[in-house]
Design a protein that fits this description.
Length: 323
């Protein structure tokens, strides 16, 4: 057990209190939401080689400290649920008076490029390398999802990395590859990636724009009358299967930096670029998203979930089952 897992163990005794606080947090705090991350993992599983599947199953089998999810099931109950672990680890550190700067790994979940003159290098704090001898899981804050994906992918393929560190690398990779494909985890309009803009969809309640891209549009991929809350497996079944050519293309583009720039472009064009003029309400400005906006967002989300899963599989195949 490494220092990060010992730190997690120390916090676990107080987790029941933290979970009470987490229950009232905005769902927008969870990139993609649990469901979206599980969908990415399930898609990845379909595209992983048998050797990579076996290696990851073995390395995740002895997870010393899972967390209870919102549905009461532990994060280590299945491969797809492990994709949510990084959010629960981060949220286990929340509490009264705690700021983002106090939370280990808080900034690792995104690479928010300002849409007015920002750059990926700025969003990633200059791509600072790990200090010599430091583990990826214990790396400094702040950092960004792009840098952490690159670091953990190297660790996973390294013969000198410990089993504990490789297990953490797997869980972080499962999560951060998903994160960086969510457009509002790669763009910012001085609104914390859309968390500072409230919006409605189909006359529903106002929620942060980020939440709609995390959750609402993921559900929309497979929602049907009478069942607005599909399971992760139902979302996967509703996704368009990638062609062999797409799989090859996506897996042979192993650059998280380009993935982030793709997401940034989507956010500029569709998440921010198509926003209507906001309406004034007693509680502040609200963006009433049109059907056209929601339909395009659903298409974007569906594509990004598949891309993330295929690329995650590529990362695992390269690290654990190279040709």
């Amino acid at each position: 057990m490494n220092a990060l897992e010992r730190r997690a163990c120390a916090r676990f005794a107080a987790l029941s209190l933290v979970c009470c606080a987490c229950a009232v947090l905005s769902p927008s705090a969870q990139a993609w939401g649990d469901k979206g991350h599980q969908v990415v993992a399930l898609v990845a599983w379909e595209h992983m080689s048998p050797k990579a599947r076996d290696a990851i199953t073995a390395m995740l089998a002895n997870d010393p400290k899972p967390y209870p999810m919102r549905d009461g099931v532990m994060t280590n109950a299945s491969f797809d649920r492990q994709a949510t672990w990084a959010d629960y680890y981060r949220d286990s550190q929340r509490g009264p008076g705690v700021t983002p700067d106090d939370i280990h790994s808080y900034y690792w979940h995104f690479a928010d490029i300002e849409i007015h003159g920002g750059s990926l290098e700025q969003a990633c704090y200059g791509f600072q390398p790990l200090p010599p001898g430091d583990l990826g899981s214990e790396g400094p804050d702040p950092d960004c999802a792009v840098n952490k994906i690159e670091q953990f992918a190297l660790e996973l393929s390294s013969p000198s990395a410990s089993a504990d560190e490789k297990r953490l690398a797997i869980k972080y990779l499962m999560h951060f590859v998903g994160d960086i494909h969510q457009p509002l985890h790669a763009a910012d309009d001085v609104d914390h990636g859309g968390n500072g803009k409230n919006a409605t969809v189909n006359g529903g309640s106002a929620q942060p724009l980020h939440h709609h891209w995390d959750v609402t549009f993921v559900d929309a991929v497979a929602a049907r009358p009478g069942k607005p809350n599909p399971s992760p497996q139902e979302v996967v079944a509703a996704l368009k299967k990638p062609t062999a050519q797409q799989v090859t293309q996506w897996q042979h583009d192993p650059s998280p930096r380009r993935w982030a720039l793709e997401s940034y472009a989507l956010a500029r064009r569709d998440a921010y670029g198509d926003l209507p003029v906001p309406s004034s309400t007693p509680s502040g400005k609200v963006y009433k998203l049109s059907k056209a906006y929601a339909d395009q967002a659903k298409r974007d989300v569906a594509t990004q979930l598949v891309k993330a899963g295929v690329r995650l599989a590529g990362v695992f195949n390269k690290a654990l089952a190279p040709d």
